[in-house]
Amino acid sequence: MTSPMTSAPTQLSRSPKLQSLVLALGLLHMPLAAQAYSLAEAAAAALAQDPSYRAAEQARLAGQEKKPQGIAGLLPSVSGTAAARDLSYAGADLDYRSYSLSLTQPLFNLASIQAARQGFEQVKASEATFQAARQEALLRVAEAYFKVLTEQDNLSSVQAEKTAIGEQLEQAKRSFEVGSATVTDQQEAQARFDLAVAKEIAANNSLSVARSALVLLTNQPLPDRLVGPSGSIAIARPEPSTAEPWIEQARTNSFSVLKAQAEAVSARYEVTKKMAGHLPSLDLVANRTYSQETTAVDTNSGSNYVGLSLTVPLFAGGLTLSQTREASALQVKADLDLQATRLQAEQSARTAYLNAVAGLSQVQALEAAEKSSKLALDSNKLGYEVGVRINIDVLNAQQQLYAAQRDLSKARYDTLLAGLKLRASVGSLQTNDLDSVSQLLQAAANKPAQAQ
């Protein structure tokens, strides 16, 4: 007798049109259900869609204009004027036309020189701000991506735990029915099963929240499940292997430090610029003027001159002195901000390094805990079957195993994220770093299949 399951392939193979239709429908459903969505793809989408990062791009473009704005004060300026008047006076018509063209080239103006120098520093500050925003965008998407993977693993672990407890519950019921176990075993298993159901509901909700957060960053739909590692991940140790090189690099290369450093230099230029209000300025001036007056007799006149214009400030009501004192105080503040930023960069690099190193040790310890928990569960199951262990021992061993697996999954992703944060703390996080992590995850996902 042929079952429907065995006859369906035969019927399908005899109908090429039906076979093509089924294949097409399968391809339509494949992108959501089976398509891999890597961390590298999520990062690329976030850089294209994240509003915070795109706003930082526009702020960078605006900041780049500080350079030409500062230089403009050192370049010549040209202006022109024109006038025309038609009058009637004492029965006579009077027409007047005049044209003037002036050119001014600053020869010495310390305030303009310092403003130009400030423009260069302001461009550096805006570039550092943008690069920091880029790193923050990459870290946001990495954290959101790892959060989804963590919640996926957590849900899978809770579901596996619920299934295992359900089997233990059925076994306790059978044992109670035949009189080889007490009702307490059944009640304990039932309580654990109900708790597992509650955990599954919470895990489903946490996964939905995590997926929504990633979608908001990438503005792209996610597949039903992100492909995560099925086994151990070969996470490399930080290189250099000690904290001092990372800390020193953070002091000089961190984007927050570079921004504060540019702002401190700009503040020093600002002090000189305000003090320049006491100094004279010298300009080269060229002028061309032409006028025409029409009455009974036409009169034309014109003049050309090239000369120097010296401006000497004498008294401004104390404004220059006040602005100089203000700029001096702001310079001291900028220097102190730079010191504080360097200390913060050192602390961030130190913390990220310690988290990365501790994470590797924690992963190793949890991998060992997972193995020992599996052995303990097998031993308790065997002991329960021969009567030397009770049902609660098996349930506790199951709970310990799945808790260790959940902790191990989270520790792996936290360690990968700590490595990315370490690179960000020294200003070296790039998209290729996320590409490397993405390849690492894919390799770990394919490892079990290769082993088979």
Distance between the termini: 34 Å
Number of domains: 1
In CATH, the topology is named Outer membrane efflux proteins (OEP)
- Indicate the overall shape: elongated
- Using only C-alpha atoms, the radius of gyration works out to 38 Å
CATH superfamily: Outer membrane efflux proteins (OEP)
Could you give the order of the helices and strands?
Answer: HHHHHEEHHHHEEHHH
Which terms summarize this structure?
452 residues; alpha+beta; Outer membrane efflux proteins (OEP)
Description:
The chain has 452 residues and is of the alpha+beta class. It has one domain: Outer membrane efflux proteins (OEP), CATH 1.20.1600. The chain has twelve helices and four strands. It has helices at 4-13, 16-33, 39-49, 51-64, 66-71, 110-177, 183-218, 243-253, 255-275, 319-386, 391-425, 431-451, and strands at 77-89, 92-108, 281-294, 298-311. It has a four-stranded antiparallel sheet, with no helix packed on it. A hairpin with a 2-residue loop joins strand 1 and strand 2. It is elongated. The two termini are 34 Å apart.
Task: Give a concise summary.
By secondary structure, the chain is of the alpha+beta class. The protein has helices at 4-13, 16-33, 39-49, 51-64, 66-71, 110-177, 183-218, 243-253, 255-275, 319-386, 391-425, 431-451, and strands at 77-89, 92-108, 281-294, 298-311. Helix content is 71%, strand content 13%.
